[in-house]
Amino acid sequence: MVKGSQQQWPLLVPPPRTPGKEELPIDIDSSIPVSTMSKPYSDSQIEMSGDFVRNPSSHSIQSKSSSTHSIKGASFREGHDLNPVSYGSRGGNSGSNPVRYGSRGASSGGFTSSYKEIKDEDARLVYVNDPGRTNQKRFKFAGNSIRTSKYSILTFLPRNLFEQFHRIAYIYFLVIAILNQLPQLAVFGREASILPLAMVLFVTAVKDAYEDYRRHRSDRIENNRLASVLVNGEFEDKKWKDICVGEVIKVSGNQTLPCDMVLLSTSDATGVAYVQTTNLDGESNLKTRYAKQETQMRTPVVGNIGGLLIKCEKPNRNIYGFQANMEIDGKRVSLGPSNIILRGCELKNTDWVVGVAVYAGKETKAMLNNAGAPSKRSRLEKRMNKEIIILSIFLVALCTVVSICHGAWLRRHREELYLMQFYRKYDYSEPEVEKYEYYGWGMEIFFVFLMSVIVFQVMIPISLYISVELVRIGQAYFMIRDDRMFDKSTNSRFQCRALNINEDLGQIKYVFSDKTGTLTENKMEFQCASVGGTDYDNGKDISTEDWQTGSVEVDGIVLRPKMTVKVDQDLLNLSKMEHTNEGKHVCDFLVALAACNTIVPLTVEASDPAIKLIEYQGESPDEQALAYAAASYGFMLIERSSGHIVINIQGKRQRFNVLGLHEFDSDRKRMSVIIGCPDQTVKVFVKGADTTMFKVIDKSLNLNTVKATESHLHSYSSKGLRTLVIGMRELSTSEFEHWQSSYESASTALMGRANLLRKVANNVENNLRLLGASGIEDKLQQGVPEAIESLRTAGIKVWVLTGDKQETAISIGYSSKLLTSKMTQIVINNNSKDSCRKNLDDALQLYKKLSNVSHSNDGGHGAGTNQLALIIDGTSLVYILETELEEKLFELASKCTAVLCCRVAPLQKAGIVALIKNRTDDMTLAIGDGANDVSMIQKADVGIGISGQEGRQAVMASDFSMGQFRFLVPLLLIHGHWNYQRISYMILYNFYRNVVLVFVLFWYVLFTGFTLTTAITDWSSVLYSVIYTSLPTIVVGILDKDLGRGTLLKYPQLYGAGQRGESYNGKLFWVTILDTMWQSVAAFFIPLAAYWDSTVGGSALGDLWILAVVILVNIHLAMDVIRWYTITHIAIWGSILATFICVMIIDTLPFLPGYWAFFMIAKTKLFWVCLLGIVVAGMVPRFVVKVFVQHCKPNDIHIAREAEKFGNLREPNAETEMNPISDLPRSTATATT
């Protein structure tokens, strides 16, 4: 990581080796012939396995586990007294090929096309420095101009409208507006009927246009940046958008790469370059990339860069994989992920690089991955759509009633239609008598039906959609600004990446969590080691006088490791006794820690100018911890260059030639390095998970040491430590030469390269001498135990899905309070389907027995006192997921308080989430920090990414992101609860306010011969949902709080209201409709009765009705507001005032009907008495019901609100006690004070 303004000097990392080229000897007088090797692997993607996840892009091992493993022997015990178990390996994969959730995966399943041969039809030919030939007409490749914008000036209007009309409600209102344009159906003014839809479309279009303008501006800046391109033998500035595939480009230090380039040469003589991929995947650690030695010597200045042909795979989204071949002078050289640098990366600690563009513009891997998280719809929105369908059916019913009644009225008055206004059958005003405004009985009924739809259109609340969007934006703003979810360690705030599921945060029932980096910090600290069968776990911090142990002086500058670890004095003393057998064994162990890695040593300025700190850069926190441990014991890695490393051993600089490196992969689950030592020997050092390392250890050498180490490993795992096993063996000259030739053949193979390289690694990684094992602590994040306890109290079930070993996972489970000593543990570790079935049946029988015992002890009041914890491994899930056993697993898991899944692969994580989603209506949330959590995050209803140590793959695939697991508590219990309550109320209120107006219009139709004339003016009907009543509901939806933060955190049980759907359900919907009908009766019939015998016109009554309805719905809203703010008062009372003003303005316009009607009726006392009477008559029943429910049948929310407001006044020491709700049925929970 680049440290701000602190200067750093890279200590070089070895580039790939080239067959046939002489390399630096092991020593000056070394007699061992050594060839530089090509890089011994070809990576395609993130591979998950064992206790690690390796990220191929950086040639390092990442601390994460993901693959499945078989666990021999099943344990099925109560309590937490576990038998030791031994592990065997079973291949897992995380490949991109579609596999079933329970699949172990074939050996090839983990490889993408980057591992396979490049067929001619799938290949891209790039002629270096010959863009004309490369981009021939039939091979025309994309230019480097990018476009992230969606619209152009010509396409904005049609495309934006097309996207907006994907909402069915918009199409509905468009049809209504079109119908109103027909003369026969023109109920409203033609302009007025279009206004509501036009305003909604306009607001959304303005928002989309502004967002797209920002994209256009960003694209323009990006496309017009300059790059140095080789033209006629000289580098000239050229705009990025004009760069073509095949052109040679020079990039200087700290510049951004304009396209995907294959490296040809770098400023370092060995071809090493360092890049930072923050813009691509969010990872800030430096990555090493290499130029082939064959092209490194061909500098563009000499003009010797042409004549090269690259045959590479077609563009794809895999940022971690690349396969190509380069033809140089008739010789074919293989290229891999280490030889390509991608668009968006920054060149760091390298003066310059020269490369050839192979992918440009929209075909670059960065642009192909430029996609957001999958779109999700909230549960409330899905439920809202169902209620809208019900309202639509209700609308059709009202229209049918009106049309039928109108038909009957026409039959009754058919003789009067000759002279009746509006319905005269003939027009006698002209000499020739014609039919006039009458289309026959059947057509009149049909027209009335359509006119009814137009008049009652407000039944479907068009403003609800945009109101909900605005409220969600406001809610997101307050979530982002919440300091309780600000992570000071990373200086990062909560991010809301999906605005459409805010309210789902208040209904979560299951939380699926990763362990490493999510519950833990993913900051590894070396704790102990087992070396030669002896356990060294008595480490102490290095004192000031011991600093010389971990320091080395180079050119007058003292180098010290940036971090120190606890040192065991006995192990430290042995490390200095090189001449004893035991001391040599310890030295080999520490050399393995320092050398068997891909760490990049960097120097960092210290406060003392005479001291510089060594910082170990690497994407694997495990590797960093081991390197710092070796340095603290006097084995400091201080330099890494092309082909060799320098380790300071007890004050002496010793050079080790790196002859070959076999990277970690998901099948071997280990990595190895072939080292040429100063004593002219060649050794292979191997480290990896115990599941595979003990298979390649020669146990005949010292069986007692192996058994002791296994015992220590079990002890380390039980403490929650992450473990690695280290082994080595010395290679004879013949063995080395055999490996060398085999590797050269495998690395240059065009077909099956990955399998061949794996076989070469397996051949050399055998008959190892066990050196020892390490124990690394990954500490829990702050507040994790308290967070899990709060979530569990809130009725949320927490499941942990990890790739770690069972003992490690169980230990973390206890320390995080996921598991407790009171829980009865059910452990399922099986290697066959039959044994899985038996264990599941036995577990279900055990649950029934425990339930019966608990039931009898409780006197028949339930079995709530028993708690079960299920612990299951990935191998068992292989035989359970997507089989008939899934149902039994679900039945068992749903009865458990805690579930812990160990050794699970990424797809199995998604399978576990699907297990719950497919069988229940409960909301699920998945949280993780690594790439292997992406499938789980996307599968869950709500996905949360932790912005931690493993890059941002999880964040980029998530709906929300945050810095710490403990932030789940305020996110769910506070914001989730508020969001759910607000949106629920808002939806029901929008239904209520619109239906009130519809019923007032309906009652009027019944008294006007079903003619669909309206007393309420067209513009008032239109402005009702837009101006009169829209703002208050938005303000309340953003700001109102039913309970305070302190109360919600103190009583997590209150979260159960969302889980049970107390604020929005079918019962509340129909109660709201009944309340709406009563209020509409009061609003319509009180003025009708008051003015029955008067001469007041319909327009004046219409003004009274619209004012009454607006006042009624705003008073209704005011009765339900809990927290009043200044803006709330302004919105509610201001809306009523705005309605009066609008009505007065409308009635002053002489070209509109009802001219001056308001002023005529408002000057009478009866008008104001009617308004008051309507409010009282409409609100009193609602007020009485609210008082009765809150005092006689209160729920948890009512009780907590009362305690929050009055509790301290009544009784200073009063406490509110809530019933636990985790196992309650979906009904209102009871609570007592």
UniProtKB/TrEMBL annotation:
Residues 32-47 have a biased composition (Polar residues). Residues 126-193 form the P-type ATPase N-terminal domain. Mg(2+) binds at D514, T516, D929, D933. It is found in: Membrane. The keyword Nucleotide-binding applies. This is Phospholipid-transporting ATPase. Residues 1-106 are annotated as: Disordered. Its EC number is 7.6.2.1.
